[in-house]
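Wed. Picked up where I left off yesterday with Beta-ketoacyl-[acyl-carrier-protein] synthase family protein. The coffee machine is broken again, so keeping this brief.
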Amino acid sequence: MVITGIGMVTPAGTDTATAWKATCAGLPTAAPDARLDGMAVDFTCAASAFDAHRVLGSDARRMDPFTQYAVAAAREAVADAGAAGGPWDPARVGVLIGTAVGGLETWLEQAGRLRDTGARAVNPLTVPKAIGNMAAATVALDLGLNGPALAVSTACASGTTALGLALDLLRAGRCDIVLAGGADAAVTPLLSGAFDRLKALSRRRADPSAASRPFDRQRDGFVLAEGAAVLVLERAADARARGRRPYASLLGYGESSDAYHLTSPDPEGNGARLALRRALADAGVAASDVALVNAHATGTPQGDAVEARLIHSAFGPHTAVTSTKGVTGHMLGAAGAAEAAFTALSIDQGVIPPTANFEEPGADIADIDIVHGAVRSAPVPVAVSNSFGFGGHNAVVVLGRA
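Structure written out below (tokens, as returned):
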């Protein structure tokens, strides 16, 4: 299966070209966020350039921000694939959008109305704006698609899980095209405070732009982010028949559960290793074929160390490794889809973005080749993108040249 379209709304840019340029330049996006004024952690990687009403018009008011992001990304992806307005059978086009938290902003806003004014003040569109399936449902509605429209929720692995399930739908012949990705808009005092109570967030308030630092010796947690990414997937023969040149192929997918802890990864990385092995086997490639790993690496002390050991044990010290979260922060359920999109662009263009803010590896980071400082020009015939989520969800995709 091949990737023929990409759409993105990210802190690094609200379209694919802008986000890719900033990511290749290694430009961190973390900055103070007025939505978190007074919080212990008051900075995020925000999709602040996104103008919902400019992009979506009056329809924006009926959507939670996570759905706004998803619809905007889906529209760009479809246009990029040369499929706007068809040529497709709407009944054969599926939509799979992952999300970690769904319409959190809407739930919180309406809970405040209920508390302050009473039930009659609650917006009658609260449920259809906020429930977790609405990004997928609204993308299907917006584009007139009648195939399966499914929501996926595997925490911060959701976007990657969506890609894997899309691959299954195409292989099974249930769809001819699938729009797959992830979306989240969880920048709220509640979620920031909750993550901070878990000691998961960076507290580098004096220098927010340097706060998201995957694998680095001075990493102290992740930076909360928001956005969406959607990829158009179809069979290679169909893309050729349409005259479309793909970015990359989606070769394989693997998933597993740690069954270890609600929030902490298995310190031995056993579940992640199983997902990686399954992905490589599904793709029919050997570890020695892999030229790039786009790591999940969020900047948390424990998670980055476990993943670095996994990468070293699977690929050795010479496979290139990057984490684009140094630029974008952690987009939660959208992260895996955005990182798969960046990986596809690396394959297509033969360049690997640097890991922003990485200066020196922590003593607990295994010997791996972390791309940093500047973009690296190198052929990328096969690449892996990792995603791991609370609850022990592990999802890995393998991409290659189309």
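Quick read: Residues 65-80 form the longest helix (16 residues).
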